[in-house]
Amino acid sequence: MATNVRPEKTTLAAVALQAGVSTPTVSKVVNGREDVAPETRARVLAALEQAGYQSPLQRRTATKTSTVVEVVVDVLTAAYTVEVLDGILQFAAKAGVEVLISATGPAASGMASTAQSPERRAQRMVDEGRAGMIVVTSAFGEAQLQAFRRRKLPVVVIDPLNPPPADVVSVGATNWAGGKSATEHLLELGHRRIAYIGGIEQAECNQARLHGYMAALTAHGVPVDPQYIVSGGRFRRDSGTAGLQALLKLDQRPTAIFAASDSIALGVLGEAARQGVRIPEQLSLIGFDGTIQGEESVPALTSVSQPLEEMGRTALRSLLRQARGEVLDSRRVELATQVIVRDSTAPPAA
C-alpha cells in the first residue's frame, strides 16, 4: 500500500549545505545583512531559490491574495507628485492592487537617505510579498538596484534624477522637446532675452529641458547667454525666488523666463509681485508640468503640460507586467508634452 510522504521543509542548514557555506552565512543573506561577499550572496540566493525556501514572514504573507506595490517619493506635498500618485492610485483601484507610499525627504538626498540598508530593504520587500517598487523623482543607487536584481524584484522609475541602467524601466515625458517648445513659444512672441531657471542641476529631466531651451535659441539665431541660465538647485518655489532675484540684478534683464517646473515658476510669480515686476506686461513666464497650481495662479501660468496621471498609470502597468514575468517592448517610455498658453506670457514691451 502506497503512502503519501510529506516533503521535508527546506531548512537553512540544507540550503547552506547546497551552497557550500555555513548556516549563519545563509541566515545573514535571508535577513539582508551586508557583511557577505557578493559572490557568496549570489550563490546563497540561487540555492534559496532552487530549494524554494520561504522565510517565516514569507510563509505568513503567502496566504494573502492581494498584490502590494511600494511607491517611494521625495516629497508628498508637491503638486507634481500628487498628480502622479493620483494616476497610480486610479490604475491600482481598477487592477485590485494595494499601494504603500513612503517619502524619502528632499530629492537631492536620494534613496541613500533611507534608514534601511539596500539589502535589508530588498529582503523586507520579499518577506512581505511586495510585487515591486515605483520610485518617483528620486535617485536610485546601484547598491539598491543590485539588491533588487538579486531578488528579482522589478523597479520602475518616474523622472529619475540619475539616468537609470538599461535594464530598469523608466517613465517620463518628452523633456527635451518640451523645453524646446517652451522656448519657441517665447521666441514666437518676439522675446530674445530669455532666461532659464533650472531645478536640480544634475537631474536628467532638468538637463533635457535645458538642452531643449538651448537648441531652440540656436535654431532661431539667438546666442546662448550663460548669465541667463540659473541653477535653482531644487524644483521648488525658493529656486524661482532666488533665480529671479539674481536675474533682476543683471544690467540687461531678461524679458522672459522659462522655469523648469511649475513650482519654480510660482516662486518667480511671488517674487515678481514683491519686486513690483508685472507679469506678463514686463516679464513673460512659462513653467513646466501643467499642474493645477499653475492653472489656478494669478495670472494663470502658461506651462508645458506633462501627462502626469498617465505617467503614474503607465509606471504601475509596467511594474505589474514585469511582476507577471512579461517581457516589455521598451524599457524607456516617454509621453508627449504640449504647451498650454494661459495669461503669463505676452509679447515683450516696446
What does this 3D model show about the protein?
There is one protein chain. The chain is of the alpha/beta class and 350 residues long. The chain folds into three domains: 42 residues, Orthogonal Bundle (434 Repressor (Amino-terminal Domain)), CATH 1.10.260; 139 residues, Rossmann fold (3-Layer(aba) Sandwich); 133 residues, Response regulator (Rossmann fold). Strands 2-1-3-4-5-11 form a six-stranded parallel sheet, with helices on both faces. The protein has a six-stranded mixed sheet with strand order 7-6-8-9-10-12, with helices on both faces. α6 packs parallel to α7, α8 runs parallel beside α9 and α10 crosses α11. The N terminus is likely disordered.
Q: What characteristic shape results from the CA principal axes?
A: elongated
Number of helices: 13
Give the amount of beta strand, in percent. 15-25%
> How helix-rich are the residues, as a percent range?
40-55%
- Per CATH, the architecture of the largest domain is 3-Layer(aba) Sandwich
CATH superfamily of the largest domain: Response regulator
Distance between the termini: 102 Å
Order of helices and strands: HHHHEHEHEHEEHEHEHEHEHEHEE
Main beta sheet = 6 strands, parallel
Provide mean pLDDT, rounded: 87
In which order are the strands of the major sheet placed?
A: 2-1-3-4-5-11
Q: Any low-confidence stretches, pLDDT <50, length ≥5?
A: 1-8, 106-114
Counting DSSP E segments of at least 2 residues, the number of strands comes to 12
**CATH-assigned fold name of the largest domain:** Rossmann fold
| The CATH C-level class name of the largest domain | Alpha Beta
* Class from secondary-structure proportions: alpha/beta
What gyration radius follows from the Cα positions, in whole Å?
Answer: 25 Å
Task: Write down the domain tally.
Answer: 3
